[in-house]
Amino acid sequence: KERREEKEKLRIRFPSAMSGEEEENAAELKIGDEFLKAKCLMNCEVSLILEHKYEQLQQVSEDPMNQVSQVFEKSLQYVKRFSRYKNPDAVRQVREILSRHQLTEFELCVLGNLCPETAEEAVAMVPSLKTKGRAHSDEAIEKMLNDLSLVKRFE
C-alpha cells in the first residue's frame, strides 16, 4: 500500500516521467507547452526590475534592509553579477535584435545571457537553432552575434 501511495505522489509531481511520455530536452526545445508560451527574461532584464524595486523600497523605509529579504538581496546580487548588459537602452536593443530572428523566448534568453562569440558556440549552447524547418544559417547567426557585440561595445 505504501509503495502504491509513493508511486501516486510521484505521478502527481512528475506526470510525464510516469506516463511514458518523452522526456523534456531543452536542446530540442522539448520544454513543455507552458514554458514555450511563457515570457522569459534575461538576467539583465531581471536586474533592472529588481534594482527598480530596491530603489522603491529604499524610498519607503528609513532602513531599506528591513524591507529586503535575504532571497531578494541574493537574487539581485546574482543577476547583477551575471548580467552582460547594464544600460536599460542596451537591454532593450538586445531584445530587439534577438527578436528579429524568430527565436523562442527560451532561445532568446539563453543567447542574451551567455553572449556566444561565434555561430559554433551559439549552436553548441542552443542546438535548436539548427533544427529542421527553422534552421538558421551560420551567416545569419554570425550577423546576430555581431549586432549583439556592437551593443556591448557601445554600452
Verbal overview:
The protein is mostly helical and 155 residues long. Helices cover 63% and strands 0% of the residues. The protein contains nine helices and no strands. Helix 4 (43-60) crosses helix 5 and helix 6 (88-99) runs antiparallel to helix 9. The longest helix has 18 residues, at 43-60.
Spatial extent as radius of gyration: 20 Å
Low-confidence stretches: 16-20
Oligomer: single chain
Number of strands: 0
Order of helices and strands: HHHHHHHHH
Shape: flat
Q: What is the helix tally?
A: 9
Largest sheet: none
The end-to-end span amounts to 62 Å
Helix fraction by DSSP (H/I, runs of at least 4) = 55-70%
User: Beta fraction of the residues?
Assistant: under 5%
Helix/sheet category: mainly alpha
**pLDDT averaged residue by residue:** 83
Features:
single chain; nucleus; RNA polymerase Rpb4/RPC9 core domain-containing protein; Rpb4/RPC9; 63% helix; 155 residues; HRDC-like_sf
Topology of this protein?
Elements lengths: L1 H12 L1 H5 L13 H4 L6 H18 L9 H13 L5 H12 L5 H10 L4 H7 L12 H16 L2
Short description:
Keywords: Nucleus. The chain is mainly alpha-helical and 155 residues long. The protein has helices at residues 2-13, 15-19, 33-36, 43-60, 70-82, 88-99, 105-114, 119-125, 138-153.
